[in-house]
Amino acid sequence: MDRAGLERALREHHEAAWGWALACCRRDRQLAEEVLQMTYASVLDGSARFDGRSAFRTWLFGVIRRVAAGERRRLARWRRLGERIGMLAPREPVTDGPDRALLRDETARRVADALARLSDRQREVLHLVFYEEMTIEQAAETLGLRLGTARTHYERGKARLRALLHEEESGR
After folding, report:
1. pLDDT-derived band of residue 160, with 50, 70 and 90 as boundaries?
2. Are 146 and 161 spatial neighbours (Cβ–Cβ below 8 Å)?
3. What is the pTM of this model?
4. If you placed Cys at 54, which of 3, 58, 137, 165 could pair as Cys (CB 3.0 to 4.6 Å)?
């Protein structure tokens, strides 16, 4: 695909790519912006090459996921170093971000809270299938998983999500 085609495809998939970057960055907007910028740069400079073996969006989501994982590891190393030399206090887990204001609807809030309690892999598979409308096969390809593994995470994630929502509803 030539540069003009890549630019067109990136524009076409930007909204979905932004949502996926947010999910991969655990709703950290600043990190998601950096990850998306790094992803687009690597696509446009040719260091990440689309070979046409999958749908462009599936391939793009895989690139975003790899870039986000690398950035989270890099930031974690810097944070640990800062904590070791006493420059930073240990980080408190983020439980409430700027996106919380967007989740005014009670049902959406409950689902978001329950999703946050799933394993990373289950949350990723469910996000791709439900929010990005991918098939389980496409989600498996995006995440670099075997199809059976993706199906297992999908089924277990749905069951755990259902249980968490029922548990919260019962506790009211």
Report:
1. very high
2. no
3. 0.62
4. 58
